[in-house]
Structure formats: C-alpha cells, structure tokens
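retry 2 of 3: previous attempt timed out while embedding NAP. Reduced batch size to 1 and resubmitted. Inputs unchanged:
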Amino acid sequence: MSAWVLITGGSRGIGAATALRCAEAGWDVAINYAQDSGAAQALAARLHGLGRRALPIQADVADPAQVGAMFEKLDAAGGRLAGLVNSAGIVAPAARLEAMTPERWRRLFDVNVMGTLLCCQQAARRMSTARGGAGGAIVNLSSRAAEFGSAGIYVDYAATKGAVDTLTKGLGRELIGEGIRVNGVRPGIIETDIHATSGMLERAQAQVKDIPMQRMGRAEEIAEAIVWLLSDASSYTVGTLLDVAGGR
Ligand code: NAP
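retry 2 succeeded.
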C-alpha cells in the first residue's frame, strides 16, 4: 500500500496543484480544507481517477482540537503518513501598520504559524523513528515576502512567513535524527485566488514588472519543487528554504 501525504489547504491553489502532482508521483493524498468542500470533493474525484486514495478532511488548522481530529481521521483510514505539506495560509488586505488591528494579526499568526506548528507536531509524532514511525518529509510554504518584509503592503503577513522560515530551519535540525526531513518553499507571486480573495489582484499584477521573468508563477511550478522536497530525490536536503520566484 502506498503512503499518505497530508496537504493542508490542499483543495485550491498551490495545495491543489501539489495534490495532483503527488497523486501522479504515487502518493495517496489527504486534502485538508477550511470551507470549500465542493473544491475538495472535486479534487478528490480527480485523484481517484488517477488510481490513488484521496481523503478530503475539513479542519481549521488554527484550532488544535480540529487539527488533532484531522490526524485521527487519517489514522483511521489506515496506511502510513509519510508526507506533510503545510500550504494552508492567508493574507490580509494591503495596509500600513498603523491601520492594522490586533484581531487581524492574531488570525494571520494563528493560521500561518500556529497551523504550521500544530500540523508539524502531529506529523512528527507519527513519523518519528524514535516513536516507532518510519520517517517522512515535511514541506512548509513560506514566501519571498519573509525576506523582503512587504513594507506598506502587509508586514504582518511577511512576519508570519519569517516565523515559518525559522521554524523550518530549526525543525530540520531537530527532526533529522528521527528520519524526518523538514524543508520550506518560498514562492514569489503565483497565480492563485489568494490575491483576489484578499482584494489585492491589481497590486499583484502591478508587481509583475519587478519580477525578472516578467510574469507570475503558476501553482504547478511550485508543486514541482514541493514534490521534489517530499521525494527521496532530495535525500540530502534538510532545513533548506527553496526560492521559486522567477528570479525575484
Ligand atoms: P489559496 O489559493 O488562497 O488557497 C488557500 C487554501 O488554504 C485553500 O485550500 C483554503 O481552503 C485553505 N485554507 C485557508 N485557511 C485555512 C485554514 N484556517 N485551515 C485550513 N485550510 C485553510 O492560497 P495559495 O495562493 O495556494 O497559497 C498557498 C500557500 O502559499 C499559503 O501559505 C501562502 O501564504 C503561500 N504563498 C502564496 C503565494 C501566492 O502568490 N499565491 C506567494 C507566496 C506564498 P478553503 O478554500 O476551504 O478556504
């Protein structure tokens, strides 16, 4: 029986493209989503069509109880969890610091940072060779914003991704002795719904002139990097942040 990869935010955007590539590469795929069950079910049907198991699981990654229940559902499905992709993430509309609210910061950090921490913890408990597991690979979605800081746009979002970068480097070193490779991918500006849902589609389009390749990336181009980091082809890559950003 093949192994499971759990992809948080797997129903749309980069997560969905990753789910498809993972299925093509032989993974069974657990598709986490927050609200849009239609998108998750439609994607699951496509993965079934590729001959893979596919399990949509609704859970808010910011909620410890819901994350715990999500992993228990996956346990109940049977089979080994060998991969985790933390792709669930949110942005907020462009604003300067003085116009932001504590509620906005709390939600951004809860989803982007707490969500990643909670899912890494649950996965590590199952994968760790020190706990009887068989090892695995974790890929965290960060952003090039972690380096640029996104001044005047969303310094808070950039700060959440800076935290994801630091977590990825530290966990990479902490868990490698237990057979778990942790790495991160830092996309540039990628064509997904995230820009429109945060009211920033025009801003994203205006930034294209600053990208050396002069175009946005496609979700599939990020998925390729993620699937490589999940696979044994990247067996000597640990605690690394891979920029996939058209030269930006
Ligand atoms: P997207 O198209 O907006 O998709 C977001 C996905 O995350 C959806 O499946 C959504 O589920 C899920 N989600 C949102 N909040 C969640 C929560 N609290 N719990 C569980 N699932 C949740 O996003 P994307 O553009 O693919 O981005 C994926 C990741 O890449 C994010 O971490 C983002 O920060 C990062 N990234 C994106 C870009 C870019 O330009 N697109 C650039 C750099 C980094 P529902 O549909 O059910 O809400």
